[in-house]
Amino acid sequence: MAKNIVKKKVIITQLKSTISQTLRQKRTIIALGLGKINRSVQKVLSPEIQGMINKVNHLVEVKNVEK
Predict the structure, then answer these.
(1) Contact present, 60 and 6 (Cβ < 8 Å)
(2) In terms of residue numbers, what domain contains 29?
(3) Residue 2, domain member (yes or no)
């Protein structure tokens, strides 16, 4: 039987610049699909995405997507 797995989605918005941030944080922002202030992307919340959000949480804002 297939399990009915609900995939949680989030909207990630970059609020601050990556100037004076470490190279690792800059690359994490780019990997999330961001790169400019006020740019937003919608992602399925997986452990990998959650880890990236945790590393740059001072630069981004995360909102849950309601169905």
Answers:
(1) no
(2) 9-64
(3) no
Is residue 14 included in any domain, yes or no?
yes
Is residue 32 in a domain? yes
- Whole-number Å distance between alpha carbons of 67 and 64: 10
Total of domains in the chain: 1
Nearest to 31 by CA among 7, 64, 60, 66: 60
Strand partners, 63: 11
- The backbone torsions φ and ψ at residue 22, rounded to the nearest 5 degrees and listed phi first, read -70, 160
Query: What does the pLDDT profile of the chain (67 residues) look like in tens digits?
Result: 567 777 899 999 999 999 999 999 999 999 999 999 999 999 999 999 999 999 999 999 999 998 7
pTM above 0.85, yes or no: yes
CATH of residue 45's domain is: 3.30.1390.20
